[in-house]
Structures are given as structure tokens and as C-alpha cells.
Amino acid sequence: MVSTGLHHGFESLEEARVLLALDFAEAVTQVICQPFRLRFTTAEGAGEHIPDVLAVACGGTWLIDVRPAARIGEADRVKFAASAEAALACGWRYLVVAGWRPHVMAVLDTLSSQRRPVTDPLGLQEVLLGGVSRGPRSFGDLVAGTIAPPVARAQLLHLVWHRRLSIDLAWPLADATLVHLAGGRAG
Fold this sequence. Notes:
35% of the residues lie in helices and 22% in strands. The chain has 187 residues and is of the alpha+beta class. It folds into two domains: 13-97, 3-Layer(aba) Sandwich (Trna Endonuclease, Chain: A, domain 1), CATH 3.40.1350; 104-184, Arc Repressor Mutant, subunit A (Orthogonal Bundle), CATH 1.10.10.10. The strands form three sheets. Strands 1-4-5-6 form a four-stranded mixed β-sheet, sandwiched between helices. β5 (60-66), α2 and β6 form a beta-alpha-beta unit.
């Protein structure tokens, strides 16, 4: 992950997607996959579970389980409840990732293609940042207002990945997508 500077293992494509989303999430400082074995007791007897991810961020720590919604059974619900209780006892937040809106992973994949350091010999990043300094503008308008729109698209994605600019991931990425200064700062 770029955010941690480390390689992280995963057991499924769904877990890899969570790691990509965590890599994009601002302020994630550490990620531990399969962090511990949780042993617990229920009315039916002893049980155990290994949560999928422990993510440490500036805003707190998250314990995360990953399972597609269609594959969550009663035994999983018991394990997830035990994980939620353990997280609560530690002062952590708990989350089960059971799926994504269809476009989210495509957008994160597109953004992540520009996460590595890049050069900007044409000075497009400052033009793009300046283009939203007085308020949001559409992705298409921003890149069209540069001397090299195809290159500006890549630079714009880079700026979004590095949270200098922001977009709303609730919607698919398109030329009509509004681009804002990160943190809503204008002017």
C-alpha cells in the first residue's frame, strides 16, 4: 500500500478491494491483515474467528471483516458479533464490508492507477488546482481548459488520489463529476 509503504497479504479479491479503499482513505497509517485469533463462548459453545483487517488511522482504529452479503450465514453473524464486542472493548470501531456500489471499485481502480509519484513538466497540476480555487468545476471542463487534456486527466486523477482535489465517490466518475479542492477549501 502506498499509504503504509508496505506490502499486505489478503485471502480474497474482496479483501484486496478493502485494502485498495483503505489505501485511498486519508490518514490510514497502519494496516494489519488477519491481526489475531478471537476466541469466544456463546450459548452453543466455544467459537473462534480471525478478523480480516485491523486499520489504524488518525481518527481511530477499525476492525474489519470482509464477506460478500450473499455468503453471510448465521455462523458468520455470530463471529461478527463477537468481533464487534471485542472491538468495542478495545475502543475500536467495527465494520463488515459486504459489498460495494457497482461503480466504486472501478473509480478507485482508475484513481489508483495514478497513485505513484509523477512529474508535471507542463505545469498542469497548478492549472487544475487553480481551476477549482473559486469553487467546484466538472472534471471535463477542468481538463478541457488545459493545453493537454489527455495528460491533464492523468494529473487530475493523481491530485484526487493524493487528496489535493476531491470528488464524490457516491457517483460514477464521468466528465460531469464535480471536482473540489480537498477539504472543501475554496479561494
